[in-house]
From TrEMBL:
ATP binds at K74. One of its GO terms (cellular component) is plasma membrane. Residues 45-313, 394-496 form the Protein kinase domain. Belongs to the protein kinase superfamily. It comes from Oryza meridionalis. This is Protein kinase domain-containing protein. The keyword Ribonucleoprotein does not apply. GO terms for biological process: cell surface receptor signaling pathway. InterPro entries: Kinase-like_dom_sf (IPR011009), Prot_kinase_dom (IPR000719), Protein_kinase_ATP_BS (IPR017441), Ser-Thr/Tyr_kinase_cat_dom (IPR001245), Ser/Thr_kinase_AS (IPR008271), WAK-like (IPR045274).
Amino acid sequence: MGDKIDLPENILRDYIPDVDKVKWILDNNHNITYFTEDDIKRITNNYSTKLGKGAYGEVYKGVIGDNRFVAVKKFIRVDKLDEFAKEVIVHTQVNHKNVVRLVGCCKDKNAPMIVFEYAANGNLSDLLYCGDTPISLGTRLSIVIQCAEALGCMHSMYNPIVHCDFKLSNILVDENFHEKISDFGISRILSTDNTNLIVNVRGSIGYMDPTFAWEGRLTPKSDVYSFGVVLIELITKTKPTNMEKNVIRRFIQAPQKRKGAKELFDVDIAKESNMKILEGIGKIAKDCIKEDIDKRPEMNDVAARLRELRKTLELGGEKTGWQFFSGGQNDLKKENQHERSNSNSNTVLYRRKSLGIFNWIGATNNFKKNGGHILKDIYNIRIYTNEEILNITQNFSTALSKSSSSDVYLGDIDDNTRVAVKVFTNVSESREEFVLQLIIQSQVQHQNIVKLFGCCLEMEHPISVCEYVPNGALCNYLVVEKGEETGERSLLDMNY
């Protein structure tokens, strides 16, 4: 029998003890770059700009080939290679716009390092406590909704992922003021029953679920507790570690007092018109930090309740995005009805010279119509150009299937990976269903779900690029013999 192929994912799994390996599987993710130690030294200019230091590593600023800033986490203790490998693997499983993006890693056992996207505006704790401008209630509400949705996505996976260290300082803010959950150093992938018993309990004082701390019982509800603490911290502007103010205990006991929780709210947002929203957030927070974990809500339910509060706040006239950020999350239908004249040309990934000016205008209009303003922000969806699609499919030379709604063609991408290129010939005018389908597919990574590589939005009909399945659909194999002599076959009736 031959030697095991020395694939990067095999090397990383070798760092994990055998008893733990079954859970920690690294998908062959084509979006991950494997760097050498020399690469990292060049990227960081020999570790010249330190961004911070934690218990397990130091973080440096760097620049990669396309002039993109990155953050490089250099592990201090090389005897903790299993922790390094687990952090990489967790990141490969999570695909969400509000989770800091994994760019790649250096798998050298003498220099384990992880490369992430760079968040230019630092962490939320510094912005809340040290920022020059107070953060509005609407912005705080928008922040927690994005984080709740990201945690809900992680908890809803086949093998749920628990962050285990959710707190304000682990929420980063990028150059466009999008929130990004970071630091998965002690995160855990749970078994399918959603519960694990952990012997070596780790977490941050003040944020850690007491049930987890005392019993070692780890479930997604452990993150729910931490999220509740963060909610209280955001509306009171008081650290949970401040023993003098003891804000968590006072918040729990507030209903027994005449003034309730009003006296605890941050004075920057505690105006009378905000009281209903603040009390609503407080109620959600108290549900999250209930001692009985079975009585705590699911993160997706928390996100839904927070979105309802946001609607109420917006009806009162307050905006819920960063007040100095002009981007925002725009509704697709409105964008199609009212095309904006000040769209950012930097986000349009075309080769203008090769298209010609008239073709470029058409491609630009199609890009908007097909949902490009939304899909460009989903980091793990690659946006292909017209030219790239024509090269991938050899001018659509090999058709795999055709139907009333789409045509599918065979193609090959850069690393000679076979792909299926699907042209949506019959989509709704608003393109909402197409955009939603791609967003959902981009956020699910599982060996039994067809992988999405990207899309093309410049043509009249939107296009998706997915992994190619050579044996076709299962329905082609669900047949039953009708006559043994003649070998006649018919599709099996599935309507029984």
